[in-house]
Amino acid sequence: MNGAASPADYEIRVEGVLDRQWTAWFEGLEIDSDDSQTVISGPVADQAALHGLLNRVFDLGLVIVSVRRLDPD
Amino acid sequence: MTGSPPERDVLLATKLQVPRSRPGLVTRRRLADQLDEGLNRGLVLVAAPAGYGKSVLLSEWVRGTAQPVAWLSLDPGDNDPVRFWRHVLAALDAVRPGMAERLGPLAGPPAPPAYDALVSGLINDVVAEPGLPDVLLVLDDYHLISSVTLQASVRFLLDHRPPQLRVVLASRSDPPLGLARYRGRGELAEVRAADLRFTVDEAAELLRQVSADLDRTAAAALAERTEGWAVGLQLAALSLRTQPDVARFVAAFTGSHRYVLDYLTEEVLGQQREDLRNFLLETSVLERLSGSLCHAVTGRDDSQQLLEEVDRSGLFVVQLDDVRGWWRYHHLFADLLRTRLEQDPEHARRLHRNAARWYERQRLPDPAIRHALAAGEHERAARLVEEHFDTVFNLRGEQATIQSWLPALPEDLVRSRPRLLLAQAQMASMHGDLQTMEPLLDAAEQVICHADDEPFEPSTGPEGSLLVNPRAMLALQRSYAAQLRGDAAATAALTREAMEHLGQNELMLASAVQGFQATAEWLHGRLDAAAEAFESSIGWWRREGQVTTTAWGYYCLARLQRGQGRLDAAAATCERALAAAGQPGERPRPAAGPALVGLGQVAYQRDDLDRALDYVSRGITLCRQFVHTPPLAAGLVTLAWIRQASGDRRGARDAMTEAESFSAGPAGLLNPVPAQRARLLLAQGAVTRAAQWADDCGLGPGDPPDYPREPGHLVLARLLLAEHHPDLAVALLDRLDRAAAGQNRAGSLIEIRAIRAMALAALGDETGATSALAAALDSGCPQGYVRVFADEGPAMAVVLGRLIAAQRGDQQAARIPLACLARLQRAFDHGRAAGGGAAADSRAPRLIEQLTSRETEVLAMLAAGRSNQSIASHLVISLDTVKKHVSHVLGKLGAANRTEAVARGRELGLID
To answer: Of B355, B540, B682, B727, which has the fewest Cβ atoms less than 10 A away?
Structure first.
């Protein structure tokens, strides 16, 4: 069941390379980067939590490339 | 007491200070020009993410402007509307001295339901004195504000902003203040990220300050890599300072895709001495830094020197005051440091613990609680919330602050701590919210024994604390719930129980116990005993200097006296209350509000509508700032009836609706508004809705009398009449009559017998009807009761007419004084003229006794403005005879003085 209150896995892609130590800043989500971008991914409790997460990205001045909800398969 | 100011005041002062300029700043003229131009529009928004130099730009610019500036640096705690507006007033106080004191009361306690009054007052105060310079209000870090109520009040400010008040908002995101409208009208100036980006020239200038021979290509490369981001450039500048090989650094940096700040922070930190590096990392947990606080956190006694060194090195601390007392890190830099610190979570927690202890010693609960939570010390945080609840909630009315603390505590922790549960119950009780309150009380009872587990030191001291004695508090809360329900027996029993638990010196609790004991008597309908209890409690409260509780006590006493049918006594009580609330000539205080409402209620009952309106209007304004809301609701109810009597039905409904918004809890003695609303509905002919209400309340004609439910039962009686069941109405009223007579409740009897008169008339028992009315008038007249009859409308007018006729026809019958009857007649006439209610009844005579021709002559001369002496000469009669005629004229017309008599005479067509 989907909705504002349901948990889901999200993937946020940003410009710039962040190293693994940033996982603590992002509340334990996974940090994966290639040469020029980083993907922050993992379970997010609900829409409010997603909002908070995006704020944390924003506060670092990182440029958001995309936000994707990963549907369970 | 030492000479240094409490830390709280010091920290507030840092929020109001324009941040100091730092060395190495590049002045960007183009942006200052953009701001100057923008100022002409009156509203400026500086919106860009963190690190773009918003605060730096604004503080530089503000320093260069001639205009008086009110600066406020917001922090997360300012999301509480009460706190926010208090701080705004403090900021504006610098440019409009005295404003904080003048308007402070409007910010509560209690937290006002809406902030329009406060904001309007603020605006008026800004423009009050002509010739004063315009004011510039700067709100920095506005993105921290998320409270919906608060946003609405700020929006109100912007919507009504006078030209003398210019506003600048600095925020990381566009605030939801309806700015699109202003933008569209050209009334908003914006400085955004694109504007704030350093151009290559500006970047070059900044970088050359540290690396004088940096060539332009290198500067351009760095500007591009950092995208003109101020914080990035500053970090780059810091790295450059001690970089041995500038070219290599530039090449490596621009060639990397690593997150800019991460890369540079590593560079910069790597270049520092180890002790300084550790100091930076450890103090990054703090929102604000002082030598003493850093010492407590890091254990280094050279913290003050280190802080000054960090400042000199340009390492992203901002000095908050003029005396090198307080700094804070730039947000981003702090975040970068914290991320590194979090690699060792146990270390971070230790640091937070040290910070929590320091703040606790300084009696600053907010940061103490935040740090305790970050340290994982939930129990300690919970204890801090409990110990400061009395101050923060009861004294300062900062409800939103408490509500921000509670969710951060784990649920099962909260449920194991009786004081936290009682605190939540207390907050719910302010809204009469039994549904929330009672489960909390049950939960508190389960764990009440845990209250003794640790010592408890309330911030107000035991005298001022309610939570200090949880068992007493629990019993009191349950007693309050019983009061809301109108359960007299339970109220008395639970209050006694609370009293048994009371300890020494617990004055606040003892105060509440006294008030509740008196209320218990009241609920029982034992008005004499209740009045006595209130009198003695009032004496005690006055001696203890409890201004609010005293005002509340007088208010209840006056209500009781009206219930006893003693309007004179009630008015006298209100006068005493006014005297207790302040000296004449002083600015009236909120505590005077209930007394003014009380005087208005008496004046209304006596049909002195102009005076009633004056009292009630003044009373309502003051009651808006009074801690307890029932007097405000009562004032609005009275206003509704004043309007109804004047024919303004719509206005009556509006006032009643507003009264409802301030009333809480189930209908009953503590909340008379719902019954009054139903009564108004009936008076306006909305029978079905009134019936629905009675149904919802479970009121039925067969109910036994129960004093707290009496207002509802009286509405029901009227309803039964309206639905043509006078027999049921009479039966109900008889029972109510017996109960009221048994307890000597004269006030109730007047109303009961008045309605009974109409019911008997509807049954065809004319004699019974006039006797019932005579009985009501017998006790009502000496005290001047008018509206209780007049508000019943035409049906009552008919019975009155018959009474007058009967009295005229039967010389032996007990006579109701003529003047009284005339006053009633006048009230009914005005009702007809105002067109209120249903069609007029022409059978009721408009004058009880006709004026003689001589009396009519005298009246005409009064209208011409002649004195008694002049009339005597003109008519060739003695002065005494003139006075006798004038007295008769006044009596027959139901007038209190010559002016009223002349007006009445014109109304009746007796004179021109």
So the answer is: B727
